[in-house]
Amino acid sequence: MGKLSVKLGRQGEERAVRFLQQLGYQILQRNFRGGGGELDIVCRKDGIIYFVEVKYRGEDAWFSPVEAVTAGKRRRLYQAAQAWLYQKLGREAACSFLLLAMNANGRIELIEDYLRW
Q: Residue 91's Cα: distance from chain center in Å?
């Protein structure tokens, strides 16, 4: 990834964190690496752990943020989520996956229960 992509990614994640906090989510961790994958944001709301994937696409993107999460990426998200649960909690817990799709116009779409556990 180039420096511009990394910078845009960080800015997108900062916006995502603020957005989630405004909706009442408690941020537990950012950029967790484990189990062969990475979780952008881990948060909690109403006793449920949420694993959040943040996807940003510019105006010239060929496909949507939703389409950017491939089968391989979904598998790595599951593996990373399992690693996080066992490293941080030592057990399974009620959890779900969220996808935050962002575009260049500042629009944020929260897709709940994006990946079934």
A: 21
CA 41 – CA 53 distance, rounded (Å): 7
Alpha helices in the chain (DSSP H): 3-22, 71-84
4 vs 113: which has the higher pLDDT = 113
Strands 95-103, 108-111: pairing is: antiparallel
Order of strands across the sheet that contains 95-103: 26-34, 37-45, 48-57, 95-103, 108-111
d(CA 62, CA 14): 24
List pLDDT tens digits, range 69-113: 788 888 999 999 999 999 998 888 889 999 998 877 778 889 888
